[in-house]
């Protein structure tokens, strides 16, 4: 038996090769792998001895040879194949152990050139992997070091690797090469600044963890991350305390983080079931926390809290007193972290670059039956606004409008958000009509904070008013300013009603549906 070994990731390869030798397997190798094995005492032969042809073109050509690929691809059960090998003086290769040039590691390096990236596109490796995988009945092909142990166990116990295991290893090959090719394609697309949707879309992600279950206990779940640094993403957060994150934890926390990234000043966002339930901004994080907590003391129970400043001990003391699922912050005071860690089930996450946003051309993907729908992320907040009423907003109202507009962008449609003094005071998410969302936001403000809190507040709507009824409801609540996209054929009715009540209203010309 012969094994051809050529690996970029040399984890465990020396011990694996030595164990193969003990099983009577002859080792053939290439380049740096050959050098490493020889240094460690493995009796390997160099690929050029097999091919009778030297490596050339700076190593670009070394395994692309009939003596390699005929030895891999020959079907042992095919008499014609085996006769041809004998006539050509070619031996079979029974194990192919290959992983590919480090393209991903190369493109992630700071200052990498296009030429360097291209030079790290493997050619011979994928070709050998695909050849061996195609002939899986006769060849065990190993691309993942974690499979070495399984292969050795079967080889030692049975003298061969089972067909089922070879079929499993075949699957691993095509997962590996598909991922590799997709990375290359995405890199080229990015280098070309190509923002078009391709005619064939291939996406690649790396598994971070499997979960106990998905959205519900009868569903399976796993977390994958994009290839790259992913700064500011939950996929790279460090968990400092608590149970494993669930599918719902991750989904809800991601929504809270995306809202938090809209703010530069010290801000706290509390989230429940994918919707913000309390948001507060201030000149210090304790005051911001107080605003977010007081915005909805009921819904924050069992919720997610994300913070864009260091969590101090005084904030941690108050957080400890309520039931929270997840806390995420860029840093923690030592005493604050120690206090939070006394709650063994509380998931405490560290995300140093919490303010980092996604690229504007990043994809937002939703699964539908039989396919996916893809769009670029909603990366814009607004590109300007127009005052459409007689009364212009005061500076204070405008400040609250901008604050509340950020919040409503992340409220499920139909969504309404009320804000006052850089605090969310009422949120109406996910209603089937806009008037219900408006009434709900007012009712929540009155019930959860205090009666009369809506007087002097502002209202933000994620899409236009189809009728003037929302203005009527705002007037009853004492709301003095409204921000909305505009664009309805009935816009004038809402404008007239605002003028009648002395409410200031601005149009952004940009909606933020969130389904």
Explain what you see.
This protein is of the alpha/beta class. It has 18 helices and 21 strands. It has helices at 13-22, 31-39, 47-51, 66-73, 79-88, 103-107, 114-119, 124-134, 148-158, 163-191, 247-260, 285-295, 313-320, 334-340, 395-408, 434-448, 469-477, 491-501; strands at residues 2-7, 26-29, 45-46, 95-99, 140-142, 205-210, 222-226, 238-241, 267-272, 275-281, 303-307, 324-329, 347-350, 363-368, 371-376, 386-387, 416-419, 424-428, 458-461, 481-484, 504-507. The strands form 5 sheets. A 6-stranded mixed β-sheet has the order 8-13-12-11-9-10. Strands 16-21-20-19-17-18 form a 6-stranded mixed β-sheet. Strands 3-2-1-4-5 form a 5-stranded parallel β-sheet, with helices on both faces. Strand 11 (303-307), helix 13 and strand 12 (324-329) form a beta-alpha-beta unit. Helix 4 runs parallel beside helix 8 (124-134). The longest helix is centred in the middle third of the chain and has 29 residues, at 163-191. The chain starts with a strand and ends in an 8-residue tail after the last strand.
């Amino acid at each position: 038996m012969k094994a051809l070994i050529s690996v970029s990731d040399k984890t465990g390869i020396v011990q694996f090769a030595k164990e193969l030798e003990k099983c009577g397997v002859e080792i053939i190798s290439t380049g740096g792998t050959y050098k490493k094995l020889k240094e460690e005492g493995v009796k390997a032969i160099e690929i050029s001895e097999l091919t009778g042809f030297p490596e050339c073109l700076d190593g670009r050509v070394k395994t692309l040879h009939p003596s390699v690929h005929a030895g891999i691809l020959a079907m042992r059960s095919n008499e014609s194949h085996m006769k041809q090998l004998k006539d050509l003086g070619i031996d079979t290769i029974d194990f192919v152990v290959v992983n590919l040039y480090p393209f991903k590691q190369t493109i992630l390096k700071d200052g990498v050139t296009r030429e360097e990236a291209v030079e790290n596109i493997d050619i011979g490796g994928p070709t050998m992997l695909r050849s061996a995988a195609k002939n899986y009945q006769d060849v065990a092909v190993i691309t993942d070091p974690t499979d070495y142990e399984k292969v050795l166990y079967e080889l030692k116990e049975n003298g061969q690797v089972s067909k089922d295991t070879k079929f499993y290893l075949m699957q691993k090959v095509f997962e590996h090469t598909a991922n590799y090719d997709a990375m290359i394609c995405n890199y080229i697309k990015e280098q070309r600044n190509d923002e078009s949707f391709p005619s064939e879309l291939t996406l690649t992600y790396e598994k971070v963890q499997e979960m106990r279950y998905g959205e519900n206990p009868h569903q399976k779940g796993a977390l994958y991350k994009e290839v790259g640094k992913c700064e500011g993403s939950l996929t790279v957060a460090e968990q400092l305390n608590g149970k494993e994150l669930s599918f719902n934890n991750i989904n809800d926390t991601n929504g809270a983080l995306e809202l938090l990234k809209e703010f530069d000043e010290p801000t706290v966002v509390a989230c429940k079931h994918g919707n913000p339930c309390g948001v507060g901004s201030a000149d210090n994080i304790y005051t911001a926390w107080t605003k977010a907590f007081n915005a909805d003391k009921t819904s924050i129970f069992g919720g997610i809290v994300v913070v864009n400043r260091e969590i101090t001990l005084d904030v941690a003391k108050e957080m400890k007193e309520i039931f929270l699922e997840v806390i995420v912050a860029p840093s923690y005071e030592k005493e604050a972290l120690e206090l939070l860690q006394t709650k063994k089930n509380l998931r405490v996450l560290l995300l140093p670059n919490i303010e980092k946003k996604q690229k504007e051309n990043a994809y937002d993907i939703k699964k539908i039956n039989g396919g996916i729908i893809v769009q670029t992320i909603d990366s814009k907040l607004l590109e300007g606004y127009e005052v459409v009423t007689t009364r212009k907003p005061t500076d204070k109202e405008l400040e609250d409008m901008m604050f509340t507009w950020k919040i409503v962008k992340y409220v499920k449609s139909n969504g309404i958000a009320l804000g006052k003094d850089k605090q969310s005071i009422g949120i109406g998410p996910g209603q089937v009509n806009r008037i219900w969302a408006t009434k709900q936001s007012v009712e929540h403000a009155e019930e959860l904070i205090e009666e009369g809190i809506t007087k002097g507040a502002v209202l933000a709507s994620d899409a236009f008013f189809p009728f003037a009824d929302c203005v009527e409801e705002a007037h009853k609540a004492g709301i003095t300013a409204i921000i909305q996209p505009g664009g309805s054929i009935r816009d004038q009715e809402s404008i007239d009603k605002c003028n009648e009540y002395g409410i200031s209203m601005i149009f952004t010309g940009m909606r933020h549906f969130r389904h």
